[in-house]
Design a protein that fits this description.
single chain, 111 residues, mainly alpha, 3 helices, 53% helix, 0% strand
């Protein structure tokens, strides 16, 4: 368990804790009051959502996402398959192009 708690995880949990505290004890308590029925209901719903966020984050951190099954093979014959090669534009540096000196002047003259 010691190797799993890294700096990014601590940052995310700190951000969740900060947002929970400020929302519950600054916003909800300031607007509705936690002693009122509406304030208590909002605090309960927000606490439930915060618990769900922390639990799902913990599952995402500690659980293995899985793997692609060995029997999987993409449908190559499908026309919209991303397997087909896509021709990409290749960046060519301007310094390697041989553009005539009057190219830009002539192209504006055609407009």
């Amino acid at each position: 368990m010691r190797g799993y708690v890294t700096f990014p995880i601590i940052i995310v949990l700190t951000a969740i804790g900060y947002l929970y505290y400020t929302t519950l004890f600054v916003l909800i308590d300031g607007w509705l009051g936690l002693s009122t029925a509406a304030g208590f209901a909002n605090a309960a719903v927000f606490t439930a959502l915060a618990v769900v966020v922390v639990v799902t984050y913990g599952i995402a951190v500690f659980k293995d996402p899985g793997r692609v099954p060995y029997s999987f093979s993409p449908d190559i014959e499908h026309s919209e398959s991303p397997i087909h090669e896509i021709k990409r534009k290749v960046w060519i540096p301007v310094s390697s192009l041989h553009i005539p000196v009057n190219f830009y002047r002539d192209s504006y003259a055609m407009l």
